[in-house]
Amino acid sequence: MADITRRFGWRHLRSAPTAHIRHHKRGRLAHDGAGLSFWYRSLSAALSEVPVNDRELAMAFHARTADFQDVTVQATVTYRISDPAEAAARLDFSVDPDSGAWRGAPLEQIATLLTETAQQHTLDVLARTPLAGALVDGVATVRERVAAGLADEPRLPATGIEVVAVRVVAIRPEAEVERALRTPAREQIQQEADRATYERRAVAVERERTIAENELASQIELARREEQLVEQRGTNTRREAEENAAADGVRAEAEAARKVRLARAEAESAREVGAARAESQAAWLRVHGEVEAATLHALAATRLAENLPRIDSLTLSPDVLTGLLTKLGRPAPDTRA
């Protein structure tokens, strides 16, 4: 909408670059173009504002397929007014010279024209297409048909309207039908999921079996090695016992030999000691045999005295002393004094 200001009974209009302004003054065209700015009097001015930019028109309508299924079509048409003079002549784009607002609804008329035309061509296509085909290839088919139909529509160029692009967003059936159509795919997906689950479980079971077999093989190998270890320990123990027995035998033999040698040495020593004693005894006897009896008696007494306990005093009677001295060949003492 153009900007209009008031100054001393005059009006000043300033339009946007995307708005085409047509100013008629007393039936004659005074200004014609986009992005204009000028002064005018409201009582003698007739103004029209035609937008020349691209506009998006979203539309949604129902259609019926060949198998009598209701579908909803969502589409968008991009259009622009290529000939503002024709559009202003065919549609009411006049604006209030005081406020700049449209007096009619020209864009709604264009929207109705485009929507009905697109709907007509869409119905023609879907009426000959079953639901499955409409859902699979219907978007491209409807888009091509609507674009061709709008291009061939004679009212659009006569009104100065040019269709830039046509887009069909979606073709959707009713909610119940859509759920029913989704059921086979969902069941198939669920079956695939179940199959994947079963395969995963089978793989898991196979892996668990492999792990169990590996553990069992490890236990068997461990038991076999333990058996070898026990056998080796028994062999080592038996060998150690044999070695100890052999060592004990060697030690016993050495000890016996040592004892034999010791006994022989002791016997030899005893023989030599005995011989020495015999020789000493024989010499002793020879010496004693050559000595007088009195000497032997004296030696005997000496030996006896050596073996007797200590005697501090000895009292001898005269008779005993006389007899002893007589035997020794000494004169008897005089006892009369």
Automatic annotation (TrEMBL):
**Which SUPFAM superfamilies does this chain map to?**
Band 7/SPFH domain
Domain called Band: residue spans: 33-197
Q: Where is this region: Disordered?
A: 231-250
InterPro entries (alphabetical): Band_7, Band_7/SPFH_dom_sf
Q: Name one Pfam family in it.
A: Band_7
Q: Specify the superkingdom.
A: Bacteria
Quote the protein name from its UniProt record.
Answer: SPFH domain-containing protein
The source organism is Streptomyces brevispora
